[in-house]
Write a structure and sequence with these properties.
The structure is a single chain. The protein is α+β, with helices and mostly antiparallel strands. The protein is 22% helix and 38% strand. The chain has helices at residues 13-18, 42-58, 90-93, 117-131, and strands spanning 25-30, 33-38, 63-67, 71-75, 78-81, 85-89, 100-101, 107-111, 135-140, 146-153, 156-164, 166-171, 174-179. Strand 8 (107-111), helix 4 (117-131) and strand 9 (135-140) form a beta-alpha-beta unit. The longest helix is centred in the N-terminal third of the chain and has 17 residues, at 42-58. The protein is globular and about 45 Å long. The chain starts with 12 loop residues before the first helix and ends in a 12-residue tail after the last strand.
Length: 191
């Protein structure tokens, strides 16, 4: 087992970029401080993969949905998050950037897990709003599977709908239909 060298100062973006990659842990940086958490469990990862795919398939060509992409929320102090799903302009995604700037991200989706519930509902909620990310959706996999959607209005997130079962959503001119129950089943949405 390798041991990561723990930084002794607040991280800059260059420090972050130069850290060794790890697949063992989920690593983010919050206000310059490295935050390490266990990797999410299988159910969570399956739901994230399916959700990213379902969103991407229904988006207009101008946007692209991606899973687990680094987003620079703030450079000073440095905050880099890896949301479960993001939507950003296709023209940017096609350049294959190493990370996205929060100003380029229109939608963030977080799927709650045991170790991130408070962070997703409180900390990231305020970070994403301050960064100006227009849409923030939170999915809870506990039965019944549900989703709360928020939209940024005058710098604050407002609840734009709570869903269980099938969610009918609007994003960037696209109508999205997401069967939330299908996020926790073995097979994706089927007629």
């Amino acid at each position: 087992m390798s041991v990561m060298e723990w930084p002794h100062d607040l991280l800059s973006l260059d420090d972050w970029i130069n850290l060794p990659e790890t697949s063992e842990y989920q690593v983010e940086v919050v206000e310059g401080v490295l935050v390490v958490a266990p990797r999410p469990m299988s159910f969570h990862q399956s739901a994230v993969t399916r959700l990213g795919y379902l969103i991407n398939e229904q988006l207009a060509d101008e946007y692209w949905a991606l899973s687990e992409v680094e987003v620079v929320v703030s450079e000073a102090p440095l905050t880099v998050r890896s949301p479960d799903v993001v939507a950003a302009p296709s023209s940017l995604v096609e350049t294959n950037p190493a990370r996205l700037d929060a100003g380029d991200v229109r939608l963030v989706v977080e799927v709650l897990s045991e170790g991130t519930r408070r962070t997703d509902q409180v900390t990231k909620f305020s970070e994403y709003a301050e960064a100006g990310i227009e849409h923030y959706w939170i999915v809870d996999l506990d039965a019944p599977v549900s989703m709360i959607t928020y939209r940024l209005i005058e710098g604050e997130y407002e609840n734009f709908g709570e869903f269980s079962g099938v969610a009918q959503l609007q994003f960037a001119g696209s109508s999205l239909t997401i069967d939330l129950n299908a996020l926790t089943t073995r097979r994706a949405q089927r007629p």
